[in-house]
């Protein structure tokens, strides 16, 4: 089951007032027939309500009815193949879905019921998804779809697809003391319940500790590939206006509201980040920020920081070259906002007592021609150093992506075939 919802908060559920079902005499009137199966008006109302709670891009009655028609066909195909969803499998599916909201099944169902959705409606929704997964495994072998090695290598060598970029608002709540954590916990429902840009921007101006608070939390375009994987996963599937979070950062909690999604020209993904962190006592105090401003005016590149750090304790200047996935999440988020040799002073360490003067030195990419590799290898040997080739594409990951892509296409084709062969009448 693929749905727009990636995170769901209790506050978001409670913010929605219960829907009023149709009159009792029309509750079970047919909305559509699918072969010899009926979809009732009550089911459509329940599913539309559920889609609204899940903040799906289209929560209309037409969308709900179309989904229910598909599920009737999916369940019928499962029955034709002799596949059934056991009570244990149903509970596992419900547990998995509720876990996306960090809730147990009973808690999740309770929130749905308070928002006007029956437990049976949720069970039917999950049962259809579990049954369809079993159909796909039975018909196509699931994730074991064979992909020829030539196709894998061709996909790995092909130009990358256009990238995605996000225009976001952010709220960064301090969480560097028990009192700050308690305050962040108390504010979390309010921030997650923001249903429009104005509400989220007001929260950013009032509560955020980020420099972006003066702009209502607005930050410039961020390329998806430059973001930490955890944050990128949260943003996937959000619609404009929706909020993701809280994201745990060192001494802070982050919330992001999607303003806009855009495309960026195809480019190679960075695999390593070269960055420097110069630590300035005083945190976000005017004196420390003034010193950071003076330092920025004196340097052009990361290498210039070495002269600044002469005579200081070695730990005051930190220079790292790390795979993107190994960069601390708050650092990676700031680096995603920077071009080469740009600086951020948004982070602190030591419970806010130390300002981080963070500078992006370079992003490394995996593409390297054979001629360049030979030249660099010769240079390393002349210098008595060990040559390390930049990381290449992960062929296993490419293979899995192709399997998922082809499996998804096969599933879509099968559903289209089932619909074409069915007798569907909308009332």
Question: Could you explain how this protein is built, in words?
Answer:
With 427 residues, the protein is α+β, with helices and mostly antiparallel strands. It contains 15 helices and 12 strands. Strand 5 (243-249) and strand 6 (252-264) form a beta hairpin. Helix 3 crosses helix 6, helix 4 packs across helix 5 and helix 7 (149-157) crosses helix 15. The longest helix is centred in the last third of the chain and has 27 residues, at 395-421. The model is unreliable at 1-25 (pLDDT under 50).
Please work out how many helical segments DSSP would assign.
15
Instruction: Based on the coordinates given, report the CATH architecture of the largest domain.
Output: Orthogonal Bundle
State mean pLDDT (0 to 100 scale).
Answer: 82
Taking pLDDT < 50 over at least 5 consecutive residues as the criterion, the unreliable ranges are 1-25
What is the distance, rounded to the nearest whole angstrom, between the alpha carbons of the first and last residues? 27 Å
The SSE order reads: HEEHHHHHHEHHEHEEEHHEHEEEHHE
Largest sheet: 5 strands, antiparallel
CA gyration radius, whole angstroms: 26 Å
Label the overall shape.
globular
Q: What is the total domain count?
A: 3
Proportion of residues in helical segments: 40-55%
CATH superfamily of the largest domain: Porin chaperone SurA, peptide-binding domain
CATH class of the largest domain: Mainly Alpha
Strand content: 15-25%
* Number of strand elements: 12
């Amino acid at each position: 089951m693929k749905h727009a919802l990636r995170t769901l908060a209790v506050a978001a559920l409670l913010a929605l007032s219960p829907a009023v079902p149709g009159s009792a005499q029309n509750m079970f009137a047919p909305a559509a027939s699918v072969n010899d199966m009926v979809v009732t008006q009550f089911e459509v109302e329940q599913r539309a309500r559920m889609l609204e709670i899940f903040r799906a891009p289209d929560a209309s009655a037409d969308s709900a009815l179309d989904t229910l028609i598909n599920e009737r066909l999916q369940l019928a195909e499962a029955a034709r193949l002799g596949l059934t969803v056991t009570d244990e499998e149903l509970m596992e599916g419900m547990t998995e879905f509720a876990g996306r909201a960090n809730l147990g099944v009973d808690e999740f169902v309770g929130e749905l019921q308070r928002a006007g959705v029956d437990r049976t409606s949720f069970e039917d929704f999950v049962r259809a998804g579990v049954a369809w997964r079993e159909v796909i495994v039975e018909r196509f072998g699931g994730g074991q779809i064979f992909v020829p090695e030539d196709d894998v290598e061709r996909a790995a060598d092909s130009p990358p697809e256009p990238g995605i970029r996000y225009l976001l608002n952010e709220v960064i709540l301090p969480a560097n003391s028990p009192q700050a954590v308690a305050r962040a916990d108390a504010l979390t429902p309010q921030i997650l319940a923001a249903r429009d840009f104005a509400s989220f921007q007001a929260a950013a101006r009032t509560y955020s500790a980020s420099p972006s608070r003066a702009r209502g939390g607005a930050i410039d375009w961020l390329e998806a590939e430059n973001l930490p994987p955890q944050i990128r996963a949260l943003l996937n599937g959000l619609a404009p206006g929706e909020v993701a979070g809280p994201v745990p950062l060192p001494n802070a909690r982050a919330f992001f509201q999607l303003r806009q999604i855009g495309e960026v020209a195809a480019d190679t993904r960075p695999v390593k980040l070269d960055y420097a962190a110069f630590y300035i006592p005083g945190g976000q105090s005017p004196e420390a920020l003034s010193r950071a401003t003076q330092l920025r005016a004196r340097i052009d590149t990361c290498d210039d920081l070495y002269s600044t750090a002469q005579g200081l304790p070695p730990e005051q200047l930190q220079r790292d070259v790390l795979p993107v996935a190994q960069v601390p999440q708050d650092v990676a988020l700031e680096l995603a906002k920077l071009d080469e040799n740009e600086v951020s002073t948004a982070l602190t360490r030591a419970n806010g007592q130390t300002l981080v003067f963070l500078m992006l030195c370079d992003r490394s990419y995996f593409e390297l021609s054979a001629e360049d590799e030979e030249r660099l290898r010769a240079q390393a040997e002349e210098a008595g150093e060990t040559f390390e080739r930049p990381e290449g594409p992960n062929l296993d990951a490419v293979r899995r992506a192709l399997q998922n892509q082809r499996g998804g296409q096969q599933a879509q084709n099968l559903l289209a075939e089932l619909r074409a062969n069915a007798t569907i009448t909308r009332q």
